[in-house]
Amino acid sequence: MSLKFSAAAKPTPISAEVQRRQRLVNRIDQQIVYCEGLKAGQTIKASWIWMDQAGNYFIPIKYGRHLIELKKGMFSIQCKGIEECENALTAVRSMVLKGELDGQMTKVAEEIRRKFNKTA
């Protein structure tokens, strides 16, 4: 058996913002996979996507159980079809990776923390 040596060191702890981004990106990736199931006609209970009576699809972006305010007073993205939902989720994923939603995620994280402190 031969050993493979590396110069890599254990990384320092990552910041809370990066952790939030990773958590949200993982959930968005999961929703993108759910889009494939929805295209195939499956009913997926954990999917964020919902449809109104007019046939428009909506995607709220959630951090935990809390909705993220994407723009002032706007909490979801309107799409015409499942394919467009998948594209919208991909666009939001890139926004999260660029840090464009860090302020909103921090606000929601503080709100979650505040609720935990009330019950303790």
Describe this structure in words.
The protein is mainly α. The radius of gyration is 18 Å and the shape is globular. It has one domain (16-114). Helix content is 49%, strand content 12%. The longest helix has 24 residues, at 16-39. The relative contact order is 0.16. The strands form 2 sheets. A 3-stranded antiparallel β-sheet has the order 1-2-5, with helices on one face. The N and C termini lie far apart (53 Å). The mean pLDDT is 92. It is built from 3 helices and 5 strands, in the order H-E-E-E-E-E-H-H.
Give a brief outline of the structure:
With 120 residues, this protein is mainly α. It has three helices and five strands, in the order H-E-E-E-E-E-H-H.
Write the layout of secondary structure elements.
Blueprint: H1 16-39, E1 50-51, E2 57-60, E3 62-63, E4 66-67, E5 76-79, H2 82-98, H3 102-119
Antiparallel strand pairs: 1-2, 2-5, 3-4
Helix pairs in contact: 1-2
Helix content: 40-55%
Number of helices in the DSSP assignment:
3
Q: Rg, please?
A: 18 Å
Number of strands: 5
Please provide the ordered H/E string of secondary-structure elements.
HEEEEEHH
Distance between the termini: 53 Å
Largest sheet: 3 strands, antiparallel
Low-pLDDT runs of 5+ residues are: none
Give me the side-by-side strand order of the main sheet. Answer: 1-2-5
